Amino acid sequence: MIEFQGxxxxxxxxxxxxxxxxxxxxxxFHFLTGPSGAGKTTLLKLCYAELRAPEGRVTLWGxxxxxxxxxxxxxxxxxxxxxxxETQFLDHLPVAENILLPLTVAGRLAEGHGNLRELxxxxxxxxxxxxxxxxxxxxxxxxxxxxxxxxxxxxxILADEPTGNLDWEMSQRLLTLLVELNRMGxxxxxxxxDLNLIRxxxxxxxxxxxxxxxxxxxxxxxxx
Length: 224
Prior knowledge:
Elements: E1 2-11, E2 14-24, E3 29-33, H1 40-47, E4 55-60, E5 63-64, H2 70-77, E6 80-83, H3 95-105, H4 109-122, H5 138-150, E7 156-160, H6 168-183, E8 187-191, H7 195-202, E9 208-213, E10 216-219
Parallel strand pairs: 3-8, 3-9, 6-7, 7-8
Antiparallel strand pairs: 1-2, 1-4, 4-5, 9-10
Helix pairs in contact: 3-4, 3-5
């Protein structure tokens, strides 16, 4: 679905990584770890064509990302759900409307109303549907962000430090939801510093651990 072949990227003359190759296959579960500044967020942005790789090749469902026009990128992004590190809600809209925004923007709002109640219940926010985002706790915001990411029924879920500001109990709840999505056949890629979260996930799902360090992407060992 998403494939990197010899990809390199840098900012302001500083190379973040080079020669990076990986593949997100249907139903796979990956963790991406590594030190701050290694390029984890950049790698995720390359996955959904927010950035374009100047070196190597990124393909989204067989299409070279560099050759995709705006419409092609928009179509590909409908197949990708992204949970950002900062939840990026519109604070003047209630939670339910924020969750529906991807469908609203795509002109597919009618598709969402039938699934919204079930989705809110699944993330444990049925009673918060009418609240504004500032009224939610950190854990509730992250679960709402996950609901927004999956409202379009994507094939791939990308999550950037989704538990970075959560306590352990709430991190476990979010992980459970992501594992459930993977068991439904979704490919999941989570960027995280939280090694305890990775260890907990490995007890539930066959996760592959990737470490981005010193400009290279490597499979992490069993010491995690």
